[in-house]
Amino acid sequence: MDILTERLSLRPTKASDVPALFSFLGDAQAMRHTAYFATLRACRRHVAGHEWQRRRLGCAPWTVRNRSDGAIIGWGGLFEDPFDPGWGVELGYWFAPSTWGTGYASELAVASVAEARDRLRLPELRAFARPDNVGSCRVLEKAGFAIERYVPELERNLYRHALER
């Protein structure tokens, strides 16, 4: 099911989306605050793992398109990480550097929180951000997340959002 926000179209990721996603997910500098994928094959594997989770749990990161021109500009949303399980359902987002500072991550975060609360009826969400990634920390705080604790082995703050219905 596609979700439309004011400026974004969020839809399940297709295999044909991966090369466009790799243009930024494979950029070590752009993804310096998170993991990046050195090869297109690694990116395909990662996306496929998340899509398997969508079939199993009902959520996985969406391909994010700009509604004005249809361009793929990001990947993100709700997921339970198949590669690092045990944290519960998380919010994550990864955007092309050309879109940074536009408010797209905040728009995605608000839509994701609503989806988690209204459709999935989750009691809470989690998210991670490196303390020096000021923009991402601000996105999470604006969306209602609060720092729960610092996780030294991940070098990230763990955020929590208790969802009220």
UniProtKB/TrEMBL annotation:
Top-level taxon in the UniProt lineage: Bacteria
This protein's name: GNAT family N-acetyltransferase
Organism (species): Bosea rubneri
InterPro entries in alphabetical order: Acyl_CoA_acyltransferase (IPR016181), GNAT_dom (IPR000182), N-acetyltransferase (IPR051531)
Domain N-acetyltransferase: 8-164
Coiled-coil segments on the chain, per record: none
